[in-house]
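Lab notebook: predicted structure, single chain.

Context: the supervisor wants predicted structures on file for every construct in the current expression panel, including those that have not yet been purified. This is the next one on the list. No modifications to the sequence; it matches the entry in the shared construct table.
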Amino acid sequence: MPDLGKYVVEVLSAYALTLLLLAGLVVISWARSRRMKRALEAAEARRANG
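Prediction complete. Output recorded below exactly as produced.
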């Protein structure tokens, strides 16, 4: 790891925040994908039955 000197706290907290936000985006995208897949399957089932 490079020597960050007096900015070590700022740089590491920026990395941590970035990783947290990216993880949040992945979770939100995954949850929305599952929700949309269920909605599509329900719509297809309604169309097939009626």
